[in-house]
Write a structure and sequence with these properties.
Elements: E1 16-17, E2 24-26, H1 30-39, E3 41-45, E4 50-55, H2 59-66, E5 78-85, E6 91-99, E7 103-108, H3 113-122, E8 130-133, E9 138-145, E10 162-166, H4 172-175, E11 186-190, E12 198-204, H5 208-212, E13 219-220, H6 222-231, H7 251-256, H8 268-277, E14 282-289, E15 302-305, E16 308-319, E17 323-331, H9 332-335, E18 342-344, E19 347-350
Length: 351
């Protein structure tokens, strides 16, 4: 995958870059950024996410055969989430999916796109599809917006495995309050992933300066995004999960990314067996940490109960209302005990 250059939003006042140097960790006020995002709205720079497109008449039928999601019936301007599993049912790839009628867009966590691209190329065989790395040309942003009018794309009702998206002329009034600008190419999808009106916005990188830097949107960094997604139970593939993760361990994915009434796909036997006959060995939960250490524990920090390790920390962050919180993968019997007194590093933790 093409490695993207640093985001133009790093030029905004107060911006502090992440370790990768590609996006902002915060813009001088990570806790106020969270509060504003939930109360009035904010713009999150997620331009480091990897983007892949698939074109060709057979694209949806082909992707349908490879993933856990029912994609054959996906209509133009609709989207969903999907997983690619190993033969033993472990999650190898997670992606958001959007089809604009001629192109299927896949976005995944930063650094995960190259492996996804290689897998898709490997599985292409004689299927007439074209797979492309779009990192150099396009960028993804997410925003919350309190005042949603009827023109905004609506979230599709149950089944929850889909969310509606559509292409629209992008103007500041469609995205955030600001001065009038010429419309630009791109698309918006509504996900409500953070529990408030939440939208993903895909624009050409060449338009970021003139379009996104000219409005009045409050910028919010990765610190704020991680805090709000942890509170919403939204996992980050490869951070809150590992190579042993099966779909049933992640409630969000089981609801949104797995379709139980579709044809065969790799790993389906494990999914069906766990769904009908058993329970997953672990479960992703949210923990409250006591905050005795001002620095949240690093991803991978062991979680203990007594003298036994019972899980690991995924994303841990300071939330503007909840204090220190984290997503953690716990053994099922411990996850079922909401009164268990857990230890993470030098901190106490509870569900």
């Amino acid at each position: 995958m093409t490695e993207t250059s640093p985001s133009p939003l790093l030029s905004l006042p107060g911006a502090v870059a992440t370790e990768s140097g590609r996006t902002a960790w915060h813009y001088g006020g990570p806790l106020p950024e969270q509060r504003k995002a939930m109360a009035t709205g904010a713009l999150f720079d997620r331009s480091d996410r990897d983007l892949v497109t698939v074109t060709g008449a057979a694209r949806l039928e082909w992707l349908h055969s490879l993933t856990t999601q029912h994609l054959q019936s996906l209509k133009p301007h609709e989207g969903t989430e999907a997983l690619v599993l190993s033969p033993t049912g472990r999650v190898e790839h997670h992606m958001n999916v959007f089809d604009d009628g001629t192109t299927t867009w896949l976005d995944t966590e930063p650094g995960r796109g190259e492996a996804l691209l290689k897998y898709l190329e490997l599985m292409k065989f004689r299927t007439e599809v074209d797979i492309r790395d779009e990192n150099a040309a396009w960028a993804l942003f997410t925003y919350t917006f309190k005042d949603v009018d009827e023109a905004a794309p609506a979230v599709q009702p149950v089944p929850a495995a889909k969310f509606v998206q559509r292409e629209v002329p992008l103007t500041p009034t469609a995205v955030y309050p600001g001065d009038a600008l010429d419309s630009t190419e791109g698309w918006i999808r509504r996900t409500d992933a953070l529990g408030v009106p939440t939208f993903d916005l895909c624009v050409r990188r060449e338009d970021i300066d003139s379009f996104l830097l000219s409005g009045d949107a409050v910028p919010a960094g990765t610190w704020a995004w991680d805090a709000l997604r942890v509170a919403a139970g939204l996992p980050a593939f490869g951070i809150d999960t590992d190579e042993k993760t099966v779909p049933h361990e992640v409630h969000h994915w089981l609801e949104r990314a797995v379709h139980f009434n579709k044809g065969c796909y790799r790993g389906q036997e494990t999914v069906a067996k766990v769904h009908h006959l058993g329970q997953p060995p672990r479960r992703l939960v949210m923990l409250h940490l006591d905050g005795s250490d001002e620095h949240p524990p690093a991803s991978g920090t062991p979680i203990t109960l007594g003298d036994k390790q019972v899980g690991t920390i995924g994303t841990a962050v300071q939330h503007y209302e909840l204090g220190q919180i984290a997503l953690a993968m716990l053994k099922r019997n411990v996850a079922d005990d909401t009164d268990a007194r857990l230890i993470v590093g030098d901190q106490a933790a509870r569900q």
